[in-house]
Design a protein that fits this description.
About 35% of the residues lie in helices and about 20% in strands. The chain is α+β, with helices and mostly antiparallel strands. A seven-stranded antiparallel β-sheet has the order 15-12-14-13-17-18-16, with helices on both faces. It has a five-stranded antiparallel β-sheet with strand order 5-6-10-8-9. A four-stranded mixed β-sheet has the order 1-2-4-3. A hairpin with a 4-residue loop joins strand 17 and strand 18.
Amino acid sequence: MIQKALIREFENVLGKDGVFLNEADRLTYSYDAAVLPPVVPAVVLRPTSRETLGKTVRLCYENGLPLTVRGAGTNLSGGTIPLPGGAVILTNGLDKILEINEGDLYAVVEPGVVTARFAAAVEAKGLFYPPDPGSQAVSTLGGNVAENAGGLRGLRYGVTRDYVMALEFFDSAGEPIKTGARTVKCVTGYNLGGLLVGSEGTLGVFSEITLKLIPAPAARKAMMAVFDDVNKASESVSSIIANRIVPVTLEFMDNFTIRAVEDFSHAGLPTDAAALLLVEVDGHPAQVEEDAAKVESICRRLGAMKIRVAQDAQEREKVWAARRAALSALSRLKPTVVLEDATVPRSRIPEMMRAVEEIGRKFRLTIGTFGHAGDGNLHPTILTDRRDKEEWHRVEQAIDVIFEKALAMGGTLSGEHGIGIAKSRYLQQETTRGTILYSKRIKEALDPKNILNPGKIIGVPSVEQAA
């Protein structure tokens, strides 16, 4: 229970409208998109300026109050589930695009800016911000940086960390920290930005983010390759990459996902297809035509029944909107949806596809698979009902095997969803015991009171702190 005196201090900083104490508000911020039990925080705090954000963090530090920063709560790893008795700090009151610099190709934003809104503002200036997580319509840039979010365009353009030029953040004591610069080159001091990106709120609280922008591509071409066999589609993915073609996007959907998405979006997807590849190339017009022709030739050679090229921007956007709706479409089919994030080297995609199919059969589970096949990032999505304890046990066993298979192929636990609390128990399987101890020493040095999103990534907090 938080002392009344501390509540009054928060209200003095944030105003009464910025301190949420009623149960309904607190319950709203008790969970995220992961399939994990909610934890109701003791208080929810909403700063609306950098100054009040810093003061809020400092008050938490001085009172030993655990805090979890929350943007839109779209993460899938339990990264924004708070600690019992702790605070949630909302960033949606820090939502200003401070600058879009067309001459030096950068933008400065507050952490609560919604990703899609920012991308549209940049596009209006004739520039391009490539990272495009599936949740971009609601996710925030602060959350994207905290999770090192990826997206459909990661194959060609990389992920969020590739666009972070500078950060301003508060340490656990509320002290302002700056790292990076607005220049193309910067080697001033330690690379604190590299440490903070993907740290899931465990090492600092972002107040300002400087992001790299690039010129918009001159031309684009999108196409859909239809296959009657999953293996043919996955082998086409490997062949496209092996032929030194790097599309902007190279997405995969199996038949189960195709049918769910078509029923949801009515985008005109072929529901009789065993698998689809959705491919887009961009760049100079001549290069786009050449790459598109090569992709089409490879897919036909490896068994594509049909290839449909988008005739205009409207048709292109309709297909990509359908792909982005995959999780929403699958979520309608069962009470519980577990979206996994196993990622393997691109050459092992066909093998991983077969492994997921076999795991579904072995554990008698419905698994729809889609994802960013071009960079090896697959999303096996298990449809279940957590209330069915026997089936849920099989789900947990299947998840274990999915990760075992991915790691055995030289892959990783997470390509873009983060570790949070959902995957922390698997971390040593991918790394080493020494890696985890090293990370804990960094955490202890930078957050001696362990108030910054305790328990995420490297293990649960102590019983004493959780009490």
